[in-house]
Amino acid sequence: METENELLLAIESSCDETSVAVIRNGSEVLSNIIASQINSHRRFGGVVPEVASRHHVEQITLCIDEALSEAEVSVDELSAVAVTYGPGLVGALLIGVSAAKAFAWAHDLPLIPVNHMAGHIYAARLVEPLSFPLMALLVSGGHTELVYMKEDGAYQIIGETRDDAAGEAYDKVGRVLGLPYPSGREIDELAHKGSDTFHFPRAMIKEDNYDFSFSGLKSSFINTVHNAEQREEILNKEDLAASFQASVIEVLTTKTLRACREYPVKQLIVAGGVAANKGLREALEKMVAEELPDVGLIIPPLKLCGDNAAMIGAAAHIEMEKGHTADYYLNAVPGLSFN
Ligand code: KG4
Ligand code: ZN
């Protein structure tokens, strides 16, 4: 179904970013409008689903207009409309899905459903072409997974978190430190000013599988802070952050290295909001340079690590090639997974 000048309008609304992009041939970003709602959620210490849906309703048509005008593309030049249909918050997803269906129907365009996590992986395609087989380390607010891909569009989860996602652990620990939501970036910054003096546990690091667990680390962190408070002792926030981050990074890099040695991979992709973490990026760059000289590492730029529609357009290009289109019965699937 590929055309020489395939222009996709992609829509993302799975959580707290309303985003619309125009993508040419699956890899060229002509526009990528991202309306973040984070200021509205921050005072609640997390994303409030009802508030998220209301913001998406207000923003979606404005974002569609802006994405088309920034890309200088008219509706009749579009090849298809792509939309995230899961995983995510059901009410939030439904706004994007409804908008995409209406747009596709009104302009008689094919509708392409996209898995949000596939989108995170395909953000890498906006940086450089993919070489298969490859391994993807997906680290976001809701997911922590190692995904093996033999070819475009084929996802095999070889390991995942048994409890909290990496980003979730960052956000929960940040709350205990009194940091605003989401806390990943702030903890990353604090961590660079401190050192690993607390030696928190590295859960499951020695186990012969690719699964993760971050709830023990989170509890250990919270207990350390609460015990100190009871003793009226003040702990160094930078060292706490550095110790927490050291544990997360050591577990993620160790398991990813093992997976890349076990599977015949040509590339390693790191994706999702936590891929914005400076400490993690540096550690993975060092690991690949020293231990995996034949593996190419792709970590997308910060703007493409968080939720955005450009990555949805990149993943949609592959779905389009495979002829995976949806009809107007397409529904949001909040618990959508690869398997
Ligand atoms: O992928 P994403 O934007 O949304 C989901 O699909 O979940 O990821 C958001 C998560 C949040 O938990 C946030 O704290 C985390 O990514 N995050 C970071 C950093 N920037 C964002 N975590 C660690 N270090 C960062 N620099
Ligand atoms: Zn995401």
How would you briefly describe this protein structure?
With 339 residues, this protein is an alpha/beta fold. 43% of the residues lie in helices and 18% in strands. It has helices at residues 38-42, 49-71, 90-107, 116-122, 166-176, 184-191, 215-230, 237-262, 278-291, 302-305, 309-321; strands spanning 7-12, 17-24, 28-36, 80-86, 111-115, 134-139, 144-149, 156-160, 267-271, 296-298.
Give a description of the structure:
With 339 residues, the chain is an alpha/beta fold. It has two domains: 7-122 and 304-321, ATPase, nucleotide binding domain (Nucleotidyltransferase, domain 5), CATH 3.30.420; 131-299, Nucleotidyltransferase, domain 5 (2-Layer Sandwich), CATH 3.30.420.40. It has helices at 38-42, 49-71, 90-107, 116-122, 166-176, 184-191, 215-230, 237-262, 278-291, 302-305, 309-321, and strands at residues 7-12, 17-24, 28-36, 80-86, 111-115, 134-139, 144-149, 156-160, 267-271, 296-298. The two termini are 25 Å apart. Bound molecules: 5'-O-[(R)-(carboxyoxy)(hydroxy)phosphoryl]adenosine and zinc ion (ZN). 5'-O-[(R)-(carboxyoxy)(hydroxy)phosphoryl]adenosine is lined by residues 15, 140-142, 167, 170-171, 182-185, 188, 272-274, 276-277, 306-307. Belongs to the KAE1 / TsaD family.
Count the beta strands. Answer: 10
Ends distance: 25 Å
Spans where pLDDT lies below 50 across 5 or more residues: none
CATH second-level architecture of the largest domain: 2-Layer Sandwich
Strand order, main sheet: write it out: 3-2-1-4-5
- Order of secondary-structure elements: EEEHHEHEHEEEHHHHEHEHH
What Rg is obtained from the alpha carbons, in whole angstroms?
Answer: 20 Å
Number of domains: 2
The unique ligands bound to this protein are: 5'-O-[(R)-(carboxyoxy)(hydroxy)phosphoryl]adenosine, zinc ion
Structural class comes to alpha/beta
Sheet-strand content, in percent, reads 15-25%
CATH homologous superfamily assignment of the largest domain: ATPase, nucleotide binding domain
Binding site for Fe cation: 116, 120, 307
EC number: 2.3.1.234
InterPro entries: ATPase_NBD, Gcp-like_dom, KAE1/TsaD, Peptidase_M22_CS, TsaD
Domain Gcp-like: 28-313
